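Readers of this paper often ask what the protein records in our data store actually look like. Nothing more is needed to write down the fold, since each code stands for a local backbone conformation. Below, we set out a record of this kind in full and without editing:
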Amino acid sequence: MNNKYKYKGMWPVAPTSFHDNGEVDYEGMERIIDCMVDQKVEGICILANYSEQFLISDEERDKLTKLCMKKIDGRVKSIVTVSHFATDIVRPRAQLAKSLGADIIMMMPPYHGSLLKGNADQIYEQFNEISKVGIPIMIQDAPLSGIELTVPLLTKMINEIEYLTCFKIESAHAASKIRALIKNCHSKLDAPFDGEESITLYADLEAGISGSMSSALLPEKIAPVIEYFLNYQKEKAEETYNHILPLINFENRQCGFRGTKTVMKEGGVIKSDFCRHPIKPLDEDTKKLLFSFAKKYDLLTYKWGK
């Protein structure tokens, strides 16, 4: 396999489980981690946007971080998301992740709503400050922030900030940005990754990524695409990717983060697919089609707890 980069393969985002009354289901969270390890992933990311991190209190976040890291227990690699607008809140989150043995922390640029966004200097300063914690940082370039992270800014940050060695690109025209960043920063990078449920995976592999961060719905089906490609079996990678693309597209465009928990509930991984208000559950027609996909592709999430 191509060993150019330190980190590679499939690193999906863990969903957060809740009881039907809205309380965090910590036992269910442990089962999610076990299921994901059984998916033979390279790493697990917790408390990301697909984990509904924006619906979780600081106290719950702290407890989930400790619980998940203890449950992972070095069986796979780990990423802890620590994003916040305030640098003084990001710092202790990063320090906690480091103390618990996380391999990487992930951060979005500082933003709060559509109008309160860090400028280029503020973004640089926050990442530079958190780099002092001494743990590898993955910068997440996602449309959710509403911030355009330009190639020149990302190039400057990656080349100059010591621990900023990883990126996750899921903005529009991801492959072009990935290709440019690898060209500009190749000697500094440990993990050029994409995301967005791996919906642009094949183009991004052609651009040079070493790994991808999907949801936890079907990572065991996506991982072979990366493995084939990095082993120079491009035709097999493309064929495998095209086979699963209808489900990836359906998840990305019709389900969002609700899809994984809906299938996990049906598969006995967790007891509830509850999402906190104001998020609404998937409608029954969407669920029906989702389950038909899960059955067709023989997903582990659809049968793990049965």
About this structure: The chain has one domain: 9-234. The first strand starts at residue 9 and ends at 10. The CA atoms of residues 72 and 202 lie 29 Å apart. The chain has a mean pLDDT of 97.
